Amino acid sequence: MKTGGREIPDDEDGNPFKTISQLVGCGTSIATLATAIEKDGVYTWDRFGRFGKASDEDKALALDLLEAQYKWASDPEADRREDPRSPMDQCEGDWTNPFERFGWAAEVEPDFKNICQTQVEDVPKKDLRVKRKAPDAFVGAFARLLVEIAKRDPDINIDEMPGIKADLLAVAIKFDGLEHPLSTFDSYIEGLCKFKRGGRPSKYYMQLFPEYFK
Q1: Domain enclosing residue 187, as ranges
Q2: How many domains does the chain have?
Q3: DSSP secondary structure, the chain, as one string
Q4: What tens digit of pLDDT does each residue of 39-72 get?
Q5: 1, 32, 60, 201 - which has most CB atoms within 10 Å?
């Protein structure tokens, strides 16, 4: 989508914005993401809160973040350090998390598969995919939310939840304060419910819980 000659992600069509953190968590390699940023650029919010394609300075910051994550993944001693967490995990839960600042919407997402297939990559043996066990308190609160959804919609199938995960997160925050970055929420609900393939943003949860969205 172009507005005033400026290319921006077409979120009006419901394309989800995928952050660097989410992409790494889903298995996209550091090398692939670095090449994508160098060749195609990346989207972010600047220091004034304006959203658009990253400046050269911000692109350099995104690449520095990936470099730090790669160095951690390649370091055989990382697990023995005083803080064994990756740079990405150290930023988890911080509202200024730089790994959540950069990314692409579906309409402008680079062809990661093609990039990976057309370059030689040194892939660290350490698995960078995000695997987080949901705390018991989260599981209990989320179970209560699913029960409430089932009460309001007896036809709900938790193996084919409507909408997208961001829609469910919005009501989860209001229902029981389950406020987490989307990547963390995604990890926590794995095994608790599933979403339809190719799901689109939906007002289903807003309509099911109108008291939260007045």
Answers
A1: 136-212
A2: 2
A3: -EETTEE---GGGTPPEEEHHHHHHTT--HHHHHHHHHHH--EEE-TTS-EEEPPHHHHHHHHHHHHHHHHHHH-TTGGGSSS-S-HHHHHTT-TT-GGGT-EEEGGG---HHHHHHTS-----SS--S---PPPHHHHHHHHHHHHHHHHH-TT--TTSBSS-HHHHHHHHHHHH-----HHHHHHHHTTT--B-TT----SHHHHHSGGG--
A4: 999 999 888 888 889 999 999 999 999 999 999 8
A5: 32
